[in-house]
Structure to design on (63 residues):
C-alpha cells in the first residue's frame, strides 16, 4: 500500500474493510481505481471519488 497516493492510502487505513477488499483485487483493478481517482481535475472531485471508491469496495456483492 506504500505505492498509493497519500489520500487514497489514508482513506484505506480509515476503512479497514475497504482495505481488505482492495488488497484482494487484481493489480490491474487496483491500478484502475487509482487511475480513476487521479484523473479528477478538482480536489473536490478527487475527494468525492475516494469516498465512492470506499463505498464500492464495501458494497454487498451479488443478490
Amino acid at each position: 500500500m506504500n505505492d498509493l497516493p497519500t489520500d487514497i492510502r489514508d482513506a484505506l487505513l480509515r476503512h479497514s474493510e475497504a482495505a481488505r477488499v482492495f488488497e484482494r483485487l487484481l493489480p490491474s483493478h487496483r491500478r484502475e481505481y487509482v487511475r480513476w481517482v487521479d484523473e479528477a481535475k478538482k480536489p473536490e472531485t478527487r475527494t468525492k471519488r475516494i469516498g465512492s471508491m470506499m463505498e464500492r469496495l464495501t458494497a454487498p456483492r451479488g443478490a
Remarks:
- The chain has one domain: 6-58.
- Residues 7 and 62 are 29 Å apart (CA to CA).
